[in-house]
Amino acid sequence: MKISTNNLFGFGIVFLSLFFIQCKNGDKKAETKEKEMNIEQSPKTKIKKEEYGTTSDGEKVAQYTLINENGMEVKIITYGGRITSLKAPDKNDEFENVVLGFDSLEQYTKDNPFFGALIGRFGNRIANGKFTLDGEEYTLAQNDGENHLHGGEKGFDKVVWDAEEAGENSLKLIYISEDMEEGYPGTLETTVVYTLTDDNALEVDYKATTDKTTVVNLTQHAYFNLSADFSETILDHKFEINADEFLPVNETLIPTGELKDVAGTPFDFREAKTVEQHIEEKNEQLERGQGYDHCWVLNEQDSGMRFAASAYHEESGRMLEVHTNEPGIQFYSGNFLDGTLPQADGDGNYGHRSGFCLETQHYPDSPNQEDFPSVVLEPGKTYSSKTSFKFSVK
What we know:
By secondary structure, the protein is mainly beta. The chain has a domain at 214-393: Distorted Sandwich (Beta-galactosidase, Chain A, domain 5), CATH 2.70.98.10. It is built from three helices and 30 strands. The protein has a nine-stranded antiparallel beta sheet, with no helix packed on it. A six-stranded antiparallel beta sheet has the order 1-2-3-4-5-6. Strands 20-19-22-25-28 form a five-stranded antiparallel beta sheet, with no helix packed on it. Strand 12 (162-167) and strand 13 form a beta hairpin. The termini are far apart. Mean pLDDT is 92; it is low at 1-25 and 28-37.
């Protein structure tokens, strides 16, 4: 049968019309499914937003997902600016979550060890919950025995942050802490920008300003287990810390003021070694922390961003490298995880030393120790701190 060119053209038009209708219907179905799940994706970025829950005070909490071109994924909620999931590749290019967390907002709002949280106004401890600034004494909550810990009863880890997209794969969180909130002077305006880069680094950029002289020391409290198996401990992870000195602590984990040489002690991580190599040794400092819960004095403090620490899990091949412009890093070996907190996947609880923290910061109790680097922020000045958590395979 002979078919004219006009007929062929007509058939082509019909076919293309049906094809585009089908594609459009498929797009609508996908869009409808995402709307049902309350998921939104910005047309300008790779960031997805979804509802996560509502606090007891009626504040809505959102979860944002950042994904880079390699498939690495980070989830962050506006409650406490917490990292709830971070999927990094192993040596077989399998992406698995390597941070400890929960699967519901309710669990995060209960007492928990700061899983994934932004910490402020002051990360770490302040002795006796007191400090003096410009001749005036300020009293803070004593929420860690007789000391003040991580900003108090309602620190930055327990507030809902405002959020806005700040780039293709950057999320900006904003919180205004009112004058005398948790006992701290000055209205503090804080922004934290999380950026997931295409070389598998999660960058955390902190900035803050105040209208009255105050103290500031912000950090990130993610717990990592590079095996991605939270039934395992982190004792077999190899750590390296770029520090010749650390800060010994007293019985309540407040620095004594001494900067102690790490040489010949269990605190010497200048060459990579496993946690289990020394953690059970008879040592006064290890006994006081029930393991590692100390601040290391980082080398090259005038060099800006530089290598601070690394962790390596041989079986999975995962490597985490931390760079920062901060003077110190707190290495915490999960000593107070006691098996009572549920894992996010519902597969058991988080056991003793099932996660570690590498918290970049100024030194603990700095407001009370004149010889430590200053944490004072004055009006007209900007607090600025940056840390990068970079993942690779070895």
